[in-house]
Amino acid sequence: MGIFGWLPRRGPKPATPEAEPEPTLAIYASQPALTAIIVTLIGVDAAQVDEIIDVTNQRFGSRHKIVYLTDSLDFMHFRNRGAIFEYLPSALEQKLHAAEISWNAYLAKRWQLLVSKWQPVHVVSYGQNIDAFLAAAPRMTARNER
Amino acid sequence: MTPPACNICGSSAFGDTYGKAGSAFIRKNVRCEGCGSLERHRLIFEVLRMRGLLSGNRRVLHLAPEECLATILRNRFGGNYLCGDLDPGQFSFPVTRIDLCSDLDRFAPASFDIVLHNHVLEHVACDYKAVAARLDGLLKPGGLHIFSVPFLEGGFREALDERTDDYRTDHFGQWDHMRIFSPEDFLQTLGSALPVPEEYDATRLVPAERLFAINVPEDAWRGFNNNSVFLLEKRQPEDAFAVSPATHLASARPPHRPDAVLFVSANGIGQGHLTRQLAVARRLKHRPAAFLTMSYSAGIVRDMGFPVHFVPHHALSGEEPGAWNARLATEIELLLDAYHVTTLIYDVNFVFDGIIEVLRNHAKLQAVWIRRAMWPSHHASYIGAGVHFPIIIEPDDYAAALDAGPTTTDRAKTTLVPPMLLIDPSERLERGAARQSLGLPQEGFVVLVDLSRSSNPDLTHLHGRLLDDLLARPDIHIVELKSPLTGNVAPRHPTRHRLVTLHPAYAHSRAFDAAIVRAGYNTFHEHIAGGIPTLFVPDESPDMDRQVDRARWAQERGAALMHRLGDGEAGLSAAIDRLLSADARAALTAACAAITGARWQNGADVLAGMLEGRFDGEDTE
Amino acid sequence: MSATLDILFVADARFEGGTSTALAVEIRAAARAGLRTGLLAIKGPLLGLPFPMHPDLRKLIDDGLTERIDPDMRLTARLTLIHHPTIVENRPTRRLSITTDKLLIVLHHPMYDGNGRRQYDLDRVIAHASDAFGADVHLAPVSAVVRDSLPRLLPPYAHMLEEDWGNLVELDDWPAKPVRPPAYPVVIGRHSRPDPLKWPTAEDAHLAYPADGSRFRVRALGADAYLAEKYGTLPTNWELIPFAWDGVPDFLGTLDFYVYFHDPAWSEAFGRTILEALATGLVVILPPHFAVLFAKAAVYAEPAEVESVIARFVADPVLYRSQCEQARRFVENNYDAAIYSDRVARIIGDETTSPAGDGLFPPLPQRNVLFASSNGIGVGHLTQQLAIAQRLPPDLTPVFATMSYSMKAAVQHGYQAHFLPHHRILEADPEDWNTCLAEELFELVAHLRPTVFAYDATAVFEGVTRALDMFPDIFKIWVRRPLWQESHRVFLEFSDSFDAVIEPGELAETFDHGPTAACRKEVFLVPPVLHLDPSERMSRESARAALGIPDGMTVVAFQLGAGANFDVKDLRAALLAEVLRRPDTIALEIQSPITPNAAGLEILGERHRTVELFPSFRFSRAFDAAISAAGYNTFHEQVLGSIPTLFVPNEGDEMDLQASRARWAELTGRGWMMRRDYDLGFAAQHVERLLDPLERAAVIRRCQSIVWKNGAVDIARYVEDHARMLRTDWDITKLGST
């Protein structure tokens, strides 16, 4: 892999304007064969993660890339299994830091971004579903004048 | 011996004055090679410097401005410095055109602090007396008219009409002189327009050794001469005595034998009440004063020369309150008789039944309640007793804005007087004398420590930490006030910690570079009015007045620092660091001065005046 | 809630020289007069390098003599003083809620320089100041030279102050030097910022500062290599002393004469350094054009006349003394800081009533600081950022966005944290991933609105720079450790995307000849950065108790790294074996929180233990010795914590040059070095030496002799200062148009 794997690849520019690809956030834009599903694990007990990974792998792993959406800080669970994951701060973290950012607004945007990024074929929910999670996100609490 | 040097620019090189050869006015070795100053300029500068007139925002009018003085005055006074001349073009710096004969009306009367001109009046081509008077009229009361003129023997002479240059030189000393003054009739000439002194002696302005040092030779010191500097102070109109009595406390006709005033106080914590009463008592000029107190500090009354009678509070004597109050009333009545008292002054938050009984039985007795503010809220029920006192005097508290106590809503018949202090800030000993009397070194940093006398273990701990912190710093001397109530505590350091019993301590307070004290009424006002850089540690005992509010008020104004018991040790160390920093102390003193204002008035003086029928500065005796 | 100040100072607090010193004098004088003041720091267009706030000004804020002002504070000021017109040559990039009764711009320089080039656009400056503060503008030139350079006709809302706003000197800081009659060889000198324009042409320099060592000694403060560039070989009697913040009064006290000539291209508006020399009471020799400023306080001559002027004073001690006296008196009369309060009173009136709206000064508004880091190998980047975050004041809130798996550490320290997975984990194409990253970072920054963005990683991703480009006002810092491999040089170009590059120092700095070494002059260099100060560690007793170590055992800590990119399995095994051969040793393997379980460590007996510790440094007083890799954090912890360590550098391709660190330690007696590929056969000797108590004591002594202060403090203070800086270093009116 090396260093140059970190730099963006500079490919040849498309010859004609029509050939210029639409600006897209899709993470697999250059690998159109890949599809993804999102498995949300919000509020799921750490002990159950392994089992969920097994089950979902079995079910979807052969056809899609599985992206786990977690609010837990124990990333090693996923790393040890070689699993792809995205993180959203838990309800507790949001509450603790409610004066620093408007979670309500930010997480809504973030979810939209994640959907644009992964273009999931399905969204599978374990634990709390994403809509409830987003709805419960607090607005920014007052602090000193901004 | 160091050679004389110019006090304006510092140069020690002098040459001769300019002028045509043979001119009457050439003098040797008096003209500064550095800035061109002559004797009179250096004399003027020295006087300005000695009197601290080179700072502060004074409005200065300088005519025919000499560069040696103009540069400094402009740099010091900026836009408040105005220099003018008939011919601005001859100057290398900006000068306004002013024709003394016609332009002085432009200026508002009494608008300058200093009017300065040297060798100008001999040039004016109009009535010199009118010009002199008009210039004088430009001065504010207390302002200075500083000037000099040339002299020749032979009597005053002038010629305003057309003459030749030679004529003027021959008769008046220089081609452009309209007149010349003469020593023998000076008082009759210019002296009729301005209050010039009868005799001139420069050593009255500046000491002789200094005159030598700044190269003002002896022949310029006495008699009217070209370097005589006249410094005329514009008289002030009489001040109106600002007193605000709403009531008359003394009878219209002074009594034959002056009637006494009886001061009654309780035992409270601390000496505050008693001290306020003493402040008034010692300012009474005619009426005798006597004291009845329940305080153990009764001794300080005796030390100040007043008769004092002591009645122990029933909490100490164990008497039943009803009987005690009756006895109190009897004691007071005995004193009313013995001293022929017609005024009773009471200074306690709580009004005893015994007092009320006396007031009921003696309808003609003038009853005055000195009631300072900043009461703790749980004393609210005591307010009602005000009904028994026709006159309530409230000594102002600087921090009154923060007062949320019960007295603030009971102002209807209160008379507010300025803060009351036993000793005026100006009555204090000079620093050197104060230090000597306390046995302190003249150099060195001295801190006054006087924390609350209440026995609070947190406070004791803080007190210990405070002393340790201060003594850990190498050159600090601590003076700590003992009181008869604190008992015997040993000093913590053989030479740098002194425990003294001192009353009144304030008289010595110029000895202190900084203070760490509680914020009781007297201490607080003493320190603010005295401009002493102070760290207040308020006593927050429930029965005390709201010291923490006073301290906080002062802190918010940058006039003092505050440390509360709960603030922790790190906070204490940081506060001490700041207190000891020269910059911080200068800022604190400046802020105190801003609060006290230009003229200090003692409420005790005002009240004493009211008691003796002294209004508006008159003495009716 | 609106607060009131008597004076609001608006200035670029990073200027090195007289401008900042003059401002510090003003602030102190105002404080002494009991005025309440505040300082609004501006990042102006003149200083591109990452200068920190001038220490004198910083100290005034620390000591409470002036308040730090945030651009968003609602304030009323009786007087607002804008120092230096260039700082408003661009509009402030934020709206200000500050009202002021009087607005002054202090003009430190003439409008045109010595070559006739315009130094600032006065119309723009006036317009921007007036717009920003909503008041008429009063121009306050510092001297007649500046005043004369200004146009007669000013816009209707601009006025000229009657008096000059002369530079002031705190006379107590500049004690008069004792007067010694000069004798040959005389000492002549000068001081100035290190700027070649402050020095004259080569020809004039050799006349004014003669090379004749038997009669002259030349001492120059603020002089270094740039002089040799200007003049070629320098005479041997010239002594060059590099620029320093302090020690100037002492320096001036060593001189007999002060001689100052400058390049014709430079236009000296006033010459604060000259004022300082005069204050000290020196005979000051200047080119004739200064006569209008200093009159008889100085002596004027052409460079060729300097020697004869000096000769005249040497021959006449009375004249010398008199001239010294005149110099000092001139400053006392006209430039004493004590006159400042009167000057201010003339502008805003005499009443020194305490500010209305009595209450304590409102606190600074909370601001977010975003710390972003890549994953690197290990927790290095995140740890460095935690070191800074924990030293920020409570009014700044750190927020983390990292690619590191150890993100949990930030959350456990109480901070808000976001995870940005790297493309390798996502198995995505880097270009696609960067597009996403740009968008994700954009959203995060847009919602967080940090005023400072601190980036800690070796590589800078295009997604990051693209997102940051959208927020030109955020102050962007790259914390970039040195000791780079040559192959990483290409990353240096990313420096342009940042407003400041901060380099945490290396103990082994002399061994660094990598790509960053040449750029040291352009970065803000701080001492080595550690998360935990060595003094904050647990005591040895508590640590050993916590780790369950019995008395009398020698503990050797093993921190050889996860081995992900540099396999040290064999070496580790050999060392372990050697350590465990002795009966009284314990080999303690410190696991990092992100070591994958798959590493499969084999336990070799009861005295071989593993423990997961973060931060392990906190426990390190328990260790008698250590064997570890030489990554930045670990290396500096071991040496500054005085733990005798055998360093086994990770020599993988992506790492920084750990071998250089280890070598430095070896050669300075602060540790030992062992290389995987060279020294495997010598494991026994290395361990024997490591366990020798005398050897260890020697290493400990050497380590303890290092004088060090935590660079994290400097970086935190830098962040604190820049979090409240109002930027005028770019033209916001051009935003959007390309």
From TrEMBL, chain A:
<protein>
    <submittedName>
        <fullName>Uncharacterized protein</fullName>
    </submittedName>
</protein>
TrEMBL record, chain B:
<dbReference type="Pfam" id="PF04101">
    <property type="entry name" value="Glyco_tran_28_C"/>
</dbReference>
<keyword id="KW-0808">Transferase</keyword>
<dbReference type="InterPro" id="IPR007235">
    <property type="entry name" value="Glyco_trans_28_C"/>
</dbReference>
<dbReference type="GO" id="GO:0032259">
    <property type="term" value="P:methylation"/>
</dbReference>
<dbReference type="InterPro" id="IPR013216">
    <property type="entry name" value="Methyltransf_11"/>
</dbReference>
<dbReference type="InterPro" id="IPR029063">
    <property type="entry name" value="SAM-dependent_MTases_sf"/>
</dbReference>
<protein>
    <submittedName>
        <fullName>Methyltransferase domain-containing protein</fullName>
    </submittedName>
</protein>
<dbReference type="GO" id="GO:0008168">
    <property type="term" value="F:methyltransferase activity"/>
</dbReference>
<feature type="domain" description="Methyltransferase type 11">
    <location>
        <begin position="100"/>
        <end position="147"/>
    </location>
</feature>
<dbReference type="Pfam" id="PF08241">
    <property type="entry name" value="Methyltransf_11"/>
</dbReference>
<keyword id="KW-0489">Methyltransferase</keyword>
<feature type="domain" description="Glycosyl transferase family 28 C-terminal">
    <location>
        <begin position="511"/>
        <end position="593"/>
    </location>
</feature>
Automatic annotation (TrEMBL), chain C:
<protein>
    <submittedName>
        <fullName>Glycosyltransferase</fullName>
    </submittedName>
</protein>
